[in-house]
Amino acid sequence: MTGRVEGKVAFITGAARGQGRSHAVRLAQEGADIIAVDLCDQVDSVPYQMATPEDLADTVKQVEVLDRRIVATKADVRDYGALKKALDDGVAQLGRLDIVSANAGIASFGRAEELPEQTWQDMIDTNLTGVWHAAKAAIPHLIAGGRGGSIVLTSSAAGLKAYANAAHYVSAKHGVVGLMRTLALELAPHMIRVNSLHPTQVDTDMVMNEFTFKLFSPDTENPTIEDFRPASQAMNALPIPWVEPVDISNALLFLASDEARYITGVTLPVDAGTVIK
Amino acid sequence: MTGRVEGKVAFVTGAARGQGRSHAVRLAQEGADIIAVDLAGQVASVPYPMATPEDLDQTVKEVEALDRRIVARQADVRDYAALKSALDEGVTQLGRLDIVCSNAGIASFGPADELDETTWRDMIDINLTGMWHTCKAAIPHLVEGGRGGSIVITSSDAGLKGFPNLAHYVSAKHGVVGLMRTLALELAPHMIRVNSLHPTSVNTDMIQNAPTYELFAPDLAEKDRTKERLTERFQTMNALPIPWVEPVDISNAVLFLASDEARYITGVPLPVDAGFMVK
User: Fold this and answer.
1) Shortest alpha-carbon distance between residue A241 and chain B (Å)
2) Residue B1 in this model has a pLDDT that exceeds 80
3) Disulfide: which of B102, B110, B220, B237 matches B115 by Cβ 3.0-4.6 Å?
């Protein structure tokens, strides 16, 4: 059976680990080649350990083992020139571009009036401007291809509702929804579709760390995953604490595939019902 | 390769033709058995010809040609007892229930102040109460199965925004969004997911008919209301440069939501609308 994105090429930001790696692997399983970028470095305002060059190398291995090609580059979504160059190189090597997963993102926490300037700025630069950069770099390739395309922006449940202690994150993720809707209109004449995904907590390093655990259990001295589990589950309607990266990847796959050929401008929660709860 | 809903059983209302038939066939292609119901008759306030028993027979043939089982019954979604009896019989024969496509619906037109009582009532009874009946009949089977499940309610772009001359349709289609959100909360403890689909115009007999053409092109003389001219009219509503979507596009969204790939997606109104809502 032919893969659901057979012969297509997908550009994925934040591909070194977590959701981005899962997207690369899932799309490769269904026949796509991958252009992967990741900062592979730390952002000072981010409290948890971010991805490393070794993580990105591991993504490369996992895609290659599926007999798909991957061009992986260390690049910062805040640096448009570097991001564009990484993508252009990838398209030159793999010959086309069809799918964009603007996935790279960070998390940090603090009350709005206490967020340091740099923490706010890093968040907006990465989680909003970085998403625009990914789309901006990709759009000329998609249009030149003349075959339409699918851009999927990773927002969050925080792109549809507010959460305390995350004004910068909520602002950036809401901003991505506005970007998605505008891009959907601008690119519709080219049959390029643009949609956003809105996960609840996902089982990745961005969430599974002492800083998130403390945010969810502020009154516990050294909270662990076992403290986090019920607190996280209480936010979802379905009786599960979090979703797995592959659940986001499966939604991405659907939106990227021709089965969703007429779906555009849509905010798609993959959130165990947290938005309606 | 195993089908994406292999071994599951799906209940589809309005299955005689159009989107409902397409859902039955698409789910069967991916390994599901089908319990199909349709009124297969006319509702007096509906201005176009509705499905027939022959249409329902054709759905049966198309599913059986895929080597899947189908239990098809004529039943009216307004008649809870009849609908429940058809579903219960299907579950008895096919052994389980996993997926519900609450799809049966009608269209009719008129300004809100001119809609007659029967036109309003038929619409609400079928496009809103019929959806509740479908879910009500299905929920005990899903809960009893203990394997979770997926309910997909067919709403419309008219479930998310208003349209002139469709007060009853818009009210019913908005109503099912409220129903979907409430059911999603009530059924979440059982891992039963509930979502709604919001198509733009779909290329079925429900829109390809003279009364619908008149609604979209009242300025044109009847002889000028050709499919070509109407194609342009329909296209102006969408962001993507297409006039309408095909039934299979809705079916592919049903399939995704019904499959385990969407195991944690619930409470979501999902447009399949060529960008109509963002335009």
Assistant:
1) 11
2) no
3) B110
